Amino acid sequence: MNKIIAILGAVLVSAGCFLPVLLVPDRTFNFFDALPVPIPDVPENAMQYAGILIIIIATISITLAFLNKTKSLWISGLITGGILTALYFGFHFKLDEMKTRADEQMNGLFGGMFKGFTDSLFEAVELGGTGWYVIIAGALLLMAASFTPALKGDKEKIQEP
Fold it and tell me: 93, 79, 65: which is closest to 135 by C-alpha?
């Protein structure tokens, strides 16, 4: 049972990298799409590198599951969760910083005439795609596979009376 839970978790982690994580009007972005605008102080390929790292972790997790080494998979789940947390909050703070800069520039140029425009523009950008949730579910399954005790039926067939 642990093996199945671990494989399912690793597959979800991998699949989540290809699902939307950034939503803008008329477009969604996963970990491997180029971002629509450069984000200050963030390497251009940061999302791609994170996606590759997450898929490598998922591949290692699947290998460990097939080798019945599920006790150490909590590390994979924890690292994946840490990467997601850093990315989510990093992008959230950078988007807030970009909004503040845009507000300052619009106020300086036009005396606040377009303040509502920058507010609506940045409110349309969301870090809430399904990819985040699928990867989190996979990471939790990896940790669950690590901490769930093996069932008696995993080692021998259950005989019905």
Answer: 79
Query: Which pTM value belongs to this model?
Result: 0.76
Give 33-62 pLDDT, tens digit per residue.
766 666 666 666 777 888 889 999 999 999
In whole angstroms, give the CA distance from residue 92 to residue 72.
31
Rounded distance between C-alpha atoms, residue 128 and residue 48, angstroms: 18
H/E/C letters for each residue in the chain?
A: CHHHHHHHHHHHHHHHCCCCCEEECCEEECCCCCCCCCCCCCCCCHHHHHHHHHHHHHHHHHHHHHCCCHHHHHHHHHHHHHHHHHHHHHHHHHHHHHHHHHHHHHHHHHCCCCHHHHHHHHHCCECCCHHHHHHHHHHHHHHHHHHCCCCHHHHCCCCCC
Query: Which residues does 34 contact at the CB level (< 8 Å), separation at least 6?
Result: 44
